[in-house]
Amino acid sequence: MLTAIAERSEIDPAVIEDVIMGCVGQAGEQSMHIGRNAVLASSLPQSVPAVTIDRQCGSSQQAVQFAAQAVMSGTQDVVIAAGVESMSRVPMGTAMIPGSGAEPWSKKVLDRFGVAAFTQFAGAEAIANKWGFNREQLDAFSLESHRRAMAAIESGAFKDEIVPVRITLADGSTALHDQDEGVRFDASMEGLGNLKTLIEGGMITAGNASQICDGSSAMLVVSEKALKEHNLTPIARIVNLTVTGGDPVIMLEEPLFATDRALKRAGMTINDIDLYEVNEAFASVPLAWLKHVGGDPAKLNVNGGAIALGHPLGASGTKLMTTLVHALKARGKKYGLQTMCEGGGIANVTILEAL
């Protein structure tokens, strides 16, 4: 991915001043500073430094925000913001050292919030109940995610934002991997309705939650000075950077309130935003977000979301931002807003202007 960024932008890799890489499961193959290891495995020279960050599902969206802050401050001019997650090879929770008895939350913290543990499943159920959604509505939203993703694939909407990867199959032959694998072309309300809930008596299922998958993504963030020096053509401008913290128990609700703050700081309303990307960690999250901000469902995740395409944790931020920029340009639209729910009750919001 880092090599592709340099090749597609036609920038000299030696002028890249930093790589900020998001990754949640920093264990096993993703341990020992995967950001630096990714640089060493790429075409970038060893002189390019890197840092690996974890803001849970918003890790690479935060990478963009850190990169933008570096550029805005004048301390750097050319930075790659990226993210990676191999959820098949480094399963969720690996870094917690299962069975060790060393839990990430102290008794003091758990007692403070009156819970035995912090869980996104419980948070997703709580949001659905609080905002008045039922199982059928969650499944209907999920089906629409697959339908939009199918339409995007069939129309070639993702072509310019995907870096094809040649893979070796079990029989030794090779194939070009250039399409997301998670989309269910045969998805139906009946099929979704037959899935078991993750919590007894609940509404959340594997069908209306994001898919586990592998992925990586990256963006080049530069200053106006670098644009001129390296003859680059900008495709988007960052309008606003926001991150907030809220209730760690319901956890996934914070994008609603972070969006309020971002719009206020930008001097905008939701009506000024042409398209939104709200990560589909669970169907209840974007549905609650729409209801809270008064958004237009037709502007939300127009090419499908994580329920259909997958949610490779650390990579999702820059992946969604890439999709948002391309979707804006394809429709001749101007402003896009992206937000992520994140573990611990945190949320990032980034407002962009397509150029």
Automatic annotation (TrEMBL):
<dbReference type="Pfam" id="PF00108">
    <property type="entry name" value="Thiolase_N"/>
</dbReference>
<dbReference type="InterPro" id="IPR020617">
    <property type="entry name" value="Thiolase_C"/>
</dbReference>
<dbReference type="InterPro" id="IPR016039">
    <property type="entry name" value="Thiolase-like"/>
</dbReference>
<dbReference type="GO" id="GO:0003985">
    <property type="term" value="F:acetyl-CoA C-acetyltransferase activity"/>
</dbReference>
<dbReference type="InterPro" id="IPR020616">
    <property type="entry name" value="Thiolase_N"/>
</dbReference>
<comment type="similarity">
    <text>Belongs to the thiolase-like superfamily. Thiolase family.</text>
</comment>
<feature type="domain" description="Thiolase N-terminal">
    <location>
        <begin position="3"/>
        <end position="224"/>
    </location>
</feature>
<feature type="active site" description="Proton acceptor">
    <location>
        <position position="341"/>
    </location>
</feature>
<dbReference type="Pfam" id="PF02803">
    <property type="entry name" value="Thiolase_C"/>
</dbReference>
<protein>
    <submittedName>
        <fullName>Acetyl-CoA C-acetyltransferase</fullName>
        <ecNumber>2.3.1.9</ecNumber>
    </submittedName>
</protein>
<dbReference type="InterPro" id="IPR002155">
    <property type="entry name" value="Thiolase"/>
</dbReference>
<feature type="active site" description="Acyl-thioester intermediate">
    <location>
        <position position="57"/>
    </location>
</feature>
<dbReference type="InterPro" id="IPR020613">
    <property type="entry name" value="Thiolase_CS"/>
</dbReference>
<feature type="domain" description="Thiolase C-terminal">
    <location>
        <begin position="232"/>
        <end position="353"/>
    </location>
</feature>
<keyword id="KW-0012">Acyltransferase</keyword>
<feature type="active site" description="Proton acceptor">
    <location>
        <position position="311"/>
    </location>
</feature>
<keyword id="KW-0808">Transferase</keyword>
